[in-house]
Structure formats: structure tokens, C-alpha cells
Amino acid sequence: MALLEIQNISMNFGGLKAIKDLSFSIESGEIRGLIGPNGAGKTTLFNVISGVYRPSKGKLFFNNQDITLIKPHATAKLGLVRTFQSITLFKNFSVLKNVLIGRHLHSHYNFLGSLFNSSGTRRYEKENEDRALEILEFMNLLKYKDELALNLPHGHQRALGISIALAAEPTLLMLDEPVTGMNTEETAAMMGLINKINKNGITILIIEHDMKVVMGLCHKITVLNFGQKIAEGTPEEIRLNQEVHEAYLGGEEYAS
Ligand SMILES: Nc1ncnc2c1ncn2[C@@H]1O[C@H](COP(=O)(O)OP(=O)(O)OP(=O)(O)O)[C@@H](O)[C@H]1O
Ligand SMILES: [Mg+2]
């Protein structure tokens, strides 16, 4: 079975059908693109997969486990972690503290146990800090570890958002528009980082409007329009797909 199976998912908000009978699956090791015009239902699908919304219909399986009714706080423990379309950082904390919070939020750590076992606690905290520093080094943020998050340039703030997600040790990392607002240089750096994360064995599902990023990064792309899948294939197949071009007609964003 695939790592993530989306089976006949529908999501209604009152009378609005944001996702309609959507099915697709993601294999372990992939970088999968999820594209489509504004309002197509991309972020809604992330919210359904990560348990923020309960789907109106259909089923979701992650690692052969039925996660259709899962609660948001339970997804990270399974290895399913997402970032948000807008930057969500603890802006008045240091860069290192942000990643440590990311670890604490998702840890299996028994807080009560820690009260009675201080040497265990210290070992746990040391391991956590070592891992957080490793993640910062991996994301090229180590030299900013003591800087307040709010002082980082935009590109580094987004990299920190991904570092917080990595702190939860994901199997599947879902990125919602990771290069929005970035200049060319920052975008290229972020593409390099996403590739590096994937090479480390993490499967990636990425929503992105920047077609250079999507085409340059993804092994396969799924296209949504008005909540329905209208195409799926390699970047080359999607580039040549007439229905995809028509869906984007009038939008300037599909300049590949
Ligand atoms: N909580 C909600 N309540 C009501 N309607 C919603 C809610 N969340 C999303 N929608 C609607 O569902 C549709 C899909 O929205 P969604 O945010 O998933 O689009 P998107 O593909 O992520 O778009 P964008 O590229 O602009 O981020 C839109 O019509 C949106 O207004
Ligand atoms: Mg969105």
C-alpha cells in the first residue's frame, strides 16, 4: 500500500463543496506537487489530512492505518507533519528555542515521570538540544541559533518553520506554499533544502504556485480545480496538459 491513500474524500462547508470525491495516493520517497488555482481546495486537503477538518465523505490511510477520524495532535506522533501557508513562529523566542518547542510539542515524553527522575530529564533535554542543533545545521540556520526568530530575514524564517516541523521527525512532510514572498535567491536555496530533506528519506507533499519550483522539484504532480482532480502525472505531462492550462487561464501564475 502507498504511504498515504486518499480515497473518495469530499469536504463540504455548508453548501460549498471544497473537495469533491478526491482520490490519489503518495508513495514513500516521493516529492509530490499539489497545484491548482486559488480556492481549488489544496489547503483544505492539508487540513483534512492533518485532522483539522473531518471529511464529509471518504477515507484516509497513512502507513496502512485508517486516519480518517484522527485528531490534529495525534498526527505528528504517526509521522505526519505539516507547515502552514502563513509563517507560524514563536517570534520572540530564539531560533533554537523554536526548534526545541517543536520537539516538545510532539514528544512522547512523560512529564510526570520527569519530576521523579531528574537525571533522566537532563539526558532527555540534552538529546533534544543535540537533535535541535543538528536540524538547524542541516537547514543552514546554526549560526542564527541564539537570534530571535523575528530578526531573521524572510527566507530564513520560512526555513525555521520547516525546522520546527522537522523537529517532530516526520515520515511525510506537507509544505503549504514554502517559497511565497521569497526572492529568486531565497527560492533556489529553499528548493535545495527541500531536495536535501527528501534525500534524507522524508516523503514530501508540496502545495506551491511557483511553477519553476513545482516543475523543478516534484517527481509527480496532482492538479486540483474546484475541488476535483483534473490531472496527475510527471512535470512534463502536466506542462503539456490542455485541461491544466485551461484551469489556469486568466491567472498569470502559470507562466512555466
Ligand atoms: N473553514 C472554511 N469555511 C468555509 N469555507 C472554507 C473554509 N476553508 C476553505 N473554504 C473554502 O474552500 C475553498 C477552497 O479553499 P482552500 O483554502 O482549500 O483553497 P486553496 O486551493 O488552498 O487556495 P489558495 O491557492 O488561494 O491558497 C474556497 O472556496 C474557500 O473559501
Ligand atoms: Mg491554500
Overall description:
By secondary structure, the protein is of the alpha/beta class. It has a single domain (4-248), classed as 3-Layer(aba) Sandwich (Rossmann fold). Helix content is 39%, strand content 23%. The protein contains ten helices and ten strands. The protein has helices spanning 42-49, 72-78, 95-106, 111-115, 118-138, 154-166, 184-199, 211-217, 235-239, 242-248, and strands at 4-13, 16-26, 31-35, 57-62, 65-66, 80-82, 172-176, 203-207, 220-225, 228-233. The protein has a six-stranded mixed beta sheet, sandwiched between helices. Strands 2-1-4-5 form a four-stranded antiparallel beta sheet, with helices on one face. β7, α7 and β8 (203-207) form a beta-alpha-beta unit. α3 (95-106) packs across α5 (118-138) and α3 runs parallel beside α6 (154-166). The longest helix is centred in the middle third of the chain and has 21 residues, at 118-138. The chain is globular and about 60 Å long. The two termini are 33 Å apart. The site of magnesium ion has 3 residues, from α1.
Question: How would you briefly describe this protein structure?
Answer:
The chain has 256 residues and is an alpha/beta fold. The protein has helices at 42-49, 72-78, 95-106, 111-115, 118-138, 154-166, 184-199, 211-217, 235-239, 242-248, and strands at residues 4-13, 16-26, 31-35, 57-62, 65-66, 80-82, 172-176, 203-207, 220-225, 228-233. The chain has ten helices and ten strands.
